[in-house]
Amino acid sequence: MAACAMTAGHAVAQPDYPSKPVTVVVSYPPGGDTDAIARLFAEKLSVRLKQPVIIDNKPGAGGALGNTSVSRALPDGYTLLFTPNPFTTAPLVMKLTSGANYDVLHGFEPVINTATQPLVLVANPGIGVKTLPELIAAAKAGKAVTYASPGAGSPMHIVGEWLNQAAGVKITHVPYRGVAPSVTDVVAGHVDTAWVTFGAVRQYLQAGRLIPLAIGDAQRSRLAPNVPTLAELGYRNVVVGAWNGFFAPKGTPASIVKLLNENLDEILKSPEVVEKLAVFGALPAGGAPDALGKINATDYAVMGKVIRDLGISAE
């Protein structure tokens, strides 16, 4: 009876929500893009909700530790998760313990898809190629070529291996611990190419210290309209992007999800927020909660197949 009473208590949103601070868990350390974007949204959301919105960094197990903690939190709207899309693929590429394991499809309530971040393949000018066809031709001719990613099992690793398969080449993966060191090494010429987000390499592209070869999205990005997609270059099925969004624990009342969604959707329309997101190579998304649910489910199915077929793991 007590359990039923607790469940019933969570079924309807409190009319005074929020009446206390809201915590947003970020499953990565402070200082990175995910943390910075989360803090941008927290600041704006706090003003609209008239309550503090606090960022709680819980890194570990490739994000799974923080993600799991939110899946087990009370579904009362006071604990949220802000996450990039490795949320979807982490359980597919990692051997997770019972203390850091969550249900990607059924363990959360989608709140809103906040932004997308196109992935771009960049090359150090010193390797002597200016286009993706030239890079593929060099690899096929026997030239040893490398590509960096911010980590094994990341979206950047997935798109790199998927391109290898589609092009029939073996460009060697060099995993790093984060975006920053991978960018540092491709600029220095220690690795030939890298899959990254635009924000991480914008200054180097503008200065000509890196060359953009292709993007992984289905369409060209307005952040770099002259850079072709993999699909345009003949690899039609190779589509991998990055996104971020807010989730709440499963069972969070629909009225609370709706309130959060509407406020965040309005925040995403602010010119100031659009401008700040662009610094990170991100474009505002928004829309109803089910838009995030759909992109999460699609990535789980499509990326899951690629991960299994290519044997990609974070081990």
TrEMBL record:
Pfam families, sorted: TctC (PF03401)
Domain of life from the UniProt record: Bacteria
InterPro entries, per database record: BUG, Bug_dom1
Transmembrane stretches, start-end: none
Family as reported in the entry's similarity comment: Belongs to the UPF0065 (bug) family.
PANTHER family tied to this protein: BLR1237 PROTEIN, TRICARBOXYLATE-BINDING PROTEIN
UniProt-recorded name of the protein: Tripartite tricarboxylate transporter substrate binding protein
Organism: Variovorax humicola
Record lineage: Bacteria, Pseudomonadati, Pseudomonadota, Betaproteobacteria, Burkholderiales
